[in-house]
């Protein structure tokens, strides 16, 4: 049951002291009502009000920050089961796993790869998020050495994995202040693990199979004073993972099981199911994914899938057809034709902006189809082009009659020329080449 | 703690039968009953949660087929029946999807050759077939009727009907009892509209598979993913005009920049992973048939679908 902002306000201390990060108690109350803040941020709230408010105002999944500094990331604070219901907010961190039984050179190489590797898609840099270090040797010294090796090469978010409290002690002396995620507290060892997590104030993974055990363990850890939790549901298969992660997401967003309101962890390590597990983890609610280093191809595919799934689905798929300006084009500026599929539009627009050549984009109505499909389906045809030129009065906007069409629509060039009386130039197939094309072809065409 | 991943849904996805065995008047070695589910895909231990089939796409004129596939398959791409046979015996596909690209040449008119090609493929492989006909309204009717007739009794899946271009294909499907693919551009309402149009001219629900159009990863895939989810939920909530199984084919996967511009040594790998990640995510959104073009993706997807359910020893290897 959700409370209204004013009801919440009545329960707050009304000191307006700003310690919660909000200017007044009332604005804090409004945030709480929207599920965008945590009651714990107000230090003056009495326990009873806290428990009343906590249950109904906390975001259904607690926000957990992992690491410090530039590359730190936060996961949790999700509100929906399906991205089309609103959006997914916090993309999962994907971390490469190393073991303290590996040679230091290998560990360093993986660390440097995660530190430096990035690739840019639609104006965003995509990267992996950190390193998971496993205490496979069982030796505290080896673990501490491996952790130091990683730490010496990069300030990346870390996951520390061990079954041995002494090993954690040894490692946390080195990196405890960088908020590594420590893996994992179980029914057997949660007291010691909570003590460690508290001492270094780092987030803690709890591990159990079965929702009751997980919820029980989460409660036990909260009682021990640790609230920054992440849940390893210890799946038996990728299918088991999505079954349980879906159940958890459903139970927490409907507030049936607030005790499970923490981000979910997935270890995707498997001799042949690793890629499948990562893909399913990305689409079905994993928040921290660890995996042995991925091949370059898997790496790109995984990061691209994550970017796609965490894109805001409210972004329209179709643009309004029309004549769009890039920069302030003059009468002699080039006119580039393309379809009204928003992804095509935004991709092309991005590249055009970076060429710094002012121009017009003539967006025609292909009902949101991409160029390839629109040509194949006959939606992009000479009649549509002719009518669009008329409708958007292109002849009065420019002093020439040359139209640049997308590379994939080359088969239509003759028919477009006939139908419009315009001179057609076939542009590149790939928007990325448009800068070069304009500089070479359009400039030549002018002279 | 109890949970129910059937979410109080009352609808079920209709079944479409692909392929007929001798017992049913065909010559296929297997007949797939696709659909029937009442919940989300790939769930563990839930018999009503589907695992998708994998189709390899091939063609009878590889002129415009991806150079990546031509390099990988070599001469095979020039002999369509051998290619189809290899899809079954070597690559391990569940289905073969044959694109009659020969019909896409300018002024194509040799309809008899379509029948011959299809006959050759039918005898080369015993897998159920998906046939993609012409791209040219002028010859649609003849091509689809020829396919329908040649493979009468085999329960083909014919592609692809779209709004404004579905009559010829529907006529062929109706005349020879095949099913068809109904494609709409990434939109739940347009998908529904097309299904209604098809129903009005007599195509039964159990003869339609929905193709919501799949943009590949990085090129609109997120829209397709959500369109598939929405189509599926509408169906599970009881909308019978959307309660058909879905087919997904991210045909742009091999032409996008990431794959085209990959270093030559990495190109196959990039193509395969791109198809694979797209296919797994599409399966999670509800697609029952995943179509791919790279033979190596077939094996990888099959292995994954087999291992996604329990028994994968996912915990033991840690
Ligand atoms: S910290 Fe508490 S008392 Fe202070 S302004 Fe925020 S809500 Fe009010």
Describe this entry's structure for a reader.
The complex is a heterodimer of chains A (447) and B (318). By secondary structure, chain A is an alpha/beta fold. Chain A folds into three domains: 5-57, Orthogonal Bundle (3-methyladenine DNA Glycosylase II, Chain A, domain 3), CATH 1.10.15; 64-309, Dihydropteroate synthase-like (TIM Barrel); 322-446, Rossmann fold (3-Layer(aba) Sandwich). Chain A has 17 helices and 17 strands. In chain A, the strands form four sheets. An eight-stranded parallel beta barrel of chain A has the order 3-6-7-8-9-10-11-12, surrounded by five helices. In chain A, strands 13-15-14-16-17 form a five-stranded mixed sheet, with helices on both faces. Chain A has a two-stranded antiparallel ribbon with strand order 1-2. Helices cover 38% and strands 15% of the residues of chain B. The longest helix of chain B is centred in the last third of the chain and has 19 residues, at 267-285. The mean pLDDT of chain B is 91. Iron/sulfur cluster (SF4) binds next to helix 2 of chain A.
How would the blueprint of this fold be written?
The complex is a heterodimer of chains A (447) and B (318).
Chain A: H1 5-11, H2 25-33, H3 47-57, E1 64-66, E2 73-75, E3 93-99, H4 104-116, E4 119-121, E5 124-126, E6 130-134, H5 140-153, E7 158-161, H6 165-175, E8 181-185, H7 190-200, E9 204-207, H8 211-223, E10 229-232, H9 238-253, E11 264-267, H10 274-283, E12 288-291, H11 296-309, E13 322-326, E14 335-339, H12 342-355, E15 359-364, H13 371-376, H14 382-391, H15 394-397, E16 402-405, H16 413-420, E17 423-426, H17 434-446
Parallel strand pairs in A: 3-6, 3-12, 6-7, 7-8, 8-9, 9-10, 10-11, 11-12, 14-15, 14-16, 16-17
Antiparallel strand pairs in A: 1-2, 4-5, 13-15
Chain B: E1 15-18, E2 32-35, E3 53-59, H1 67-73, H2 80-89, E4 95-99, H3 111-124, E5 129-132, H4 137-150, E6 157-162, H5 167-176, E7 179-183, H6 188-200, E8 208-211, H7 221-236, E9 246-249, H8 257-260, H9 267-285, E10 287-292, H10 295-308
Parallel strand pairs in B: 3-4, 3-10, 4-5, 5-6, 6-7, 7-8, 9-10
Antiparallel strand pairs in B: 1-2
Helix pairs in contact in B: 2-3, 3-4, 4-5, 7-9, 9-10
Bound molecules: iron/sulfur cluster (SF4).
